[in-house]
Amino acid sequence: MQPRLEYYKAAPEVMRGMLALQKVVNETGLEPILQELIKIRVSQINGCAFCIDMHTKDARALGETEQRIYALNAWRETPFFTDRERVALEWAESLTRITEGHVPEAVYQHALTQFSEADLVKLTLAVVTINSWNRIAIAFRTVPGSYESAKKS
After folding, report:
1. What gap in Å lies between CA 64 and CA 88, rounded to an integer?
2. Quick check: is 50 in a domain?
3. How far apart are CA 54 and CA 82, in angstroms?
4. Where does residue 145 rank: exposed (0-12), middle (13-18), buried (19+ CB within 10 A)?
5. Which CATH number does the domain housing residue 111 bear?
């Protein structure tokens, strides 16, 4: 696979904006592992190989287990995730698949059992941001495999 273009070079001012948005998300106070799980799951749904590669590496660097990473696409059928993670994954899936019926009221109410209103807004921004990154990487065919994580547990 060949990349279509180098988006950081083609539009650096726009990419600085995306990086600034990601910085805001990183500083929300949401657990880093939770954020990585969301990034992986959303990237799986969207089929973004580059982001799956990146965020599985980042999750491992933060101490995430192989078992949970491998089971993430079947999180409902495993005992490996906390209630808070399950709610976050359900919220992320509903937002990512918004064309399938928007976010159901039951999903919203369930999310409020684990997240304050402020944290639900932060979680939503995290989901929106990874969906944006996925679309950028997919559109311009960013090649997976060379990313090395700088994150530490």
Report:
1. 16
2. yes
3. 23
4. exposed
5. 1.20.1290.10
Q: Which amino acid is at 52?
A: I
- Going residue by residue through the chain (153 aa), what tens digit of pLDDT does each one get? 899 999 999 999 999 999 999 999 999 999 999 999 999 999 999 999 999 999 999 999 999 999 999 999 999 999 999 999 999 999 999 999 999 989 999 999 999 999 999 999 999 999 999 999 999 999 999 999 999 999 876
Six-digit token string for 47: 């089929």
Q: What is the per-residue DSSP string for 71-128?
A: HGGGGGG-S-S-HHHHHHHHHHHHHHTGGGTS--HHHHHHHTTTS-HHHHHHHHHHHH
What domain range is 16 assigned to? 7-139
- Domain annotation covers residue 150: no
